[in-house]
Amino acid sequence: MKTLAVYSIKGGVGKTTTAANLAWAAAQAGRRTLLVDLDPQGASSFYFRVRPIKGAKAQRILSGGDALTDCIRASDHDGLDLLPAHLSFRNFDLLLDDMKRSRTRLRKALRAVKDEYDLVVLDAPPSITLLSENLFDASDLILVPVIPSPLSERTWRQLMDFFKDHKLPENQLRPFFSMAQSRSRLHKDTMVRLRATGRFLHAVVPLSADIERMAERREPVLVFAPNRTAARACRALCREVLAELEPT
Ligand SMILES: Nc1ncnc2c1ncn2[C@@H]1O[C@H](COP(=O)(O)OP(=O)(O)OP(=O)(O)O)[C@@H](O)[C@H]1O
Ligand SMILES: [Mg+2]
């Protein structure tokens, strides 16, 4: 089982959109996939029309074992299950703070599903907290959406600095351009400059009305507009990510 996080310190950069599209594309590509919605906003659960079971509390997720697996629900799509968000997930940091070995709890909890799934996709809330550190520890790869604009670039640099300062493996971080506008001079210049660092994935997810419609359709753009530019970009991103996670 491989674990992929979609993460940024910054809000509204396309984490949930990416997590939903990638999870669906990976399931389509034959990977038994679990999408874990760690964000109490519950947006990725909303995209897949999945509601939490009663009592799916944060504590149960961190306990792992049957307590965690009982919270998993099937989606309407073959090969894709969800662990939907619950409002109590706002308490993850409080709970973790009270626990021993508080930075490794999520990885240990996810052992409960290691034989059931090929891929676990973690959709995380923005900010950098103890939950984020658990996510870093639990993930084989951390996909970071970066809008090619100054504030988003700044949070990408903050994240790299955090990894350096805490001696975390920087090569776990894979940034890609999200909501890119090909007609914007600022976006184009920023992409050229950041690409020169050699770290960014090739796939670029454009700013797209089709992607925005996901919230109305409540399904991945790959389902309702599979031949459009945005869907092609999401498929390319999925291919690149799977190639990194599963080197031959
Ligand atoms: N490529 C895109 N083109 C157009 N709109 C997009 C794109 N990606 C995301 N959006 C829209 O931007 C908003 C934020 O996207 P999303 O929820 O994926 O971001 P997020 O990083 O998960 O946000 P949060 O930090 O609140 O969890 C949503 O309304 C979504 O529909
Ligand atoms: Mg989100």
Protein architecture, described:
With about 250 residues, the chain is of the alpha/beta class. It has 13 helices and 8 strands. The two termini are about 15 Å apart. Bound molecules: adenosine-5'-triphosphate and magnesium ion (MG). Adenosine-5'-triphosphate binds near residues 12, 14, 15 and 215.
The ordered H/E elements are: EHEHHHEEHHEHEHEHEHHHH
CATH fold-level name: Rossmann fold
Q: Would you count the extended β strands for me?
A: 8
Q: What is the overall shape? A: globular
Question: Which cofactor or ligand species appear?
Answer: adenosine-5'-triphosphate, magnesium ion
Work out the helicity level: 40-55%
The CATH class label is Alpha Beta
What would CATH call the architecture?
3-Layer(aba) Sandwich
Average pLDDT works out at 96
CATH homologous superfamily, by name? Answer: P-loop containing nucleotide triphosphate hydrolases
Distance between the termini: 15 Å
Contiguous uncertain segments of 5+ residues: none
Q: What portion of residues belong to β-strands?
A: 15-25%
What Rg is obtained from the alpha carbons, in whole angstroms?
A: 17 Å
**Largest sheet data:** 8 strands, mixed
Structural class by sheet pairing and helices? alpha/beta
Count the DSSP helices: 13
| Major β-sheet strand ordering | 3-4-2-5-1-6-7-8
* Whole-number total of structural domains: 1
